Fold:
Amino acid sequence: MYTLEMGDYKYIFEYDTPEELEKYLKLTMATHEQAEEIRNRHTITHKIIEKEEQYPKDKGMGISFYDLETKLLVSKKKLNKVSDSSYKAYASTFNKLKEFFNKTKINEITIEDFEGFRDFLADEYDLVNKTINNHMKYVNMFLEYGVNYKLIDENNVKGIENLKEDSPDKENFTNDDIKNILSYGYPQNFKDIFKIGAYTGMRVSEINNLTKESIKVDENEIYYFDISKSKTKSGIRKVPIHKDILEDVLKMEFPLISEKTEDACQKVILRQLYKVIQKESTKSFHTFRGTFISKCINNFPEKVLIVQEIVGHSKGKFTLTVDDYGHGFDLNLKQEIVNSLSFL
Structure:
């Protein structure tokens, strides 16, 4: 007779030979690990349900994605309808939603905001259209759940169309493209918008939010755009102003465009851009960003992290070291990269 106590469990069995004992011990260890895994899973589920029961019932119409994630998982767990693979997929989408929207109430999020989230998936995570569509499918499912259980007013993702999954890779602008755009007889505000886009790689929303106060100069007399508002931590940054456009920027009247939403700005800007660039091409205002990044990386392939900071991309595993401890790169390093651009 052999007795084995492991935590809250006691195992008792008989054996005749040492080999038989060894066999039973291996089987017992495997069974014990499986029991522990089930118990841990139950504990996690119980904590989620316990947290859910603590929510005041009148908070239903003012929830964020943090709240919706808990409520949805509680519901699925109670029905035993979430597999491990599904849970990981849900968690991945929820994490990105929480990163982009933080604790914004879902009822305050517009269709344009969700389209901005879709663009964020492409810009920040460099995802292909198929993967972005999968994330948006989950977002739609999350919101449908919220509407059905009267946690939110409406599903503002339902009307957003999927991206084309077979679309060709977008081209960058050639030097001739940019020279033709910058020399075209646009109204002055559009000339200024295209100039800033070409020499900074900034997003439409960032350019639209610029004011005179956004232009600052440091102790080394380096002029830069101070982007202080962004939906992501990486988006808050200092972008040096290229030497070839500094004089023009200091004379610009801000805001450069009157449209209030990013979607409206994109449409107005595209109508102007298509006066020079063929509408049938894959090129858009966002192409300025791709062209800027490509040129910077090719000029300084060893300084990709600095380029990522200039354009507001996450630095991945280096974020903690560079941003939190190092507080970002010096402006003179970023200025060297920006000033290396030439479209002659």
Q: What stands out?
A: Residues 55-60 have pLDDT under 50 and may be disordered. The longest helix spans residues 18-53. Residues 148 and 154 are 9 Å apart (CA to CA). The first strand starts at residue 2 and ends at 6.
